[in-house]
Amino acid sequence: MVGGAIFGIVLWLRLDYWTREYLELNSKLERYLILIYITLAAGALIAAFSILGLIGACLKRKWLLIVYLSVVVIAMVLTVAAFVYGAIYRDELRNTLVSDSLLTEIIKNKYIEDRTSRFVRVVDIMQSELECCGGTNPMDYAESNWAKTIQSSNDQNSGTSMKSVPVPASCCKDYLKYQDRSKTCDMYSRDPKDDQKKSEDIWQTGCEINLQQFFDKYVVIVISIAAVFFVLQKSPYPSRGDHWDHYH
Fold first, then answer.
1. CA triplet 35, 36, 38: central angle to 5 degrees?
2. In the 8-state DSSP scheme, what is residue 133?
3. Which of 78, 105, 124, 169 has the fewest CB atoms below 10 angstroms from its CB?
4. Mean of the pLDDT values across residues 152-179?
5. Contact 162, 184 (CB under 8 A)
6. Is the Ligase keyword given for this protein (predicted)?
7. Residue 110 CB: number of other CB atoms within 10 A?
8. Contact 44, 7 (CB under 8 A)
9. With the C-alpha atoms ordered 74, 75, 77, 78, is the resulting torsion angle positive or negative?
10. What are the pLDDT digits (tens) for 16-33?
11. Which residues lie across from 202 on neighbouring strands?
């Protein structure tokens, strides 16, 4: 049952829609899957081979018990590996998203005015669902290729330059309203008397921290599962005395 529970929970984490979408941002984020697959393997081994343990106990077959115990040892090694890798990956994730400015680079260089683009789709989903804007903050869009395209288009249409820096509709708190209308929000207030005031219509938090917290939450769940499984295997509680005479 424990193995089945572990396998089921971790499989759910693997198939989670939002996780699969965010992993498409960059191959570095896919290292998260290593942690998932290690824990999945441990759960699958225990779930599959626990039947051998039951049969061996009922039929008093030593070789079946030996196989089962060997699998338990392998599963324990995998859970320890998952725990250690998970602890290391948390720091690696922070370095990838924050120190390496991964999202900032994607937004500046790969976010474009093309709704069919994979990066555009994932970034829009991320900003809307995690309630954030840009990598470090919304100002990342001021230096992006996307903003230059939008501003150039508006200048040609209006004949005047925009005073406010645009951000995508996915940065807007009322996403559907702006998605159906202009498909952009303004970074600053349109009030001429206070045009340097940050707009209250957009999320002011950058996505680096929010995405890190999203993955960090799942990593903590996985390493907690690994830790609990290891403790259960080492716990003397399931023991019901010396069974030596029963098998001899």
1. 65
2. -
3. 105
4. 66
5. no
6. no
7. 17
8. yes
9. positive
10. 988 888 988 888 888 889
11. 172
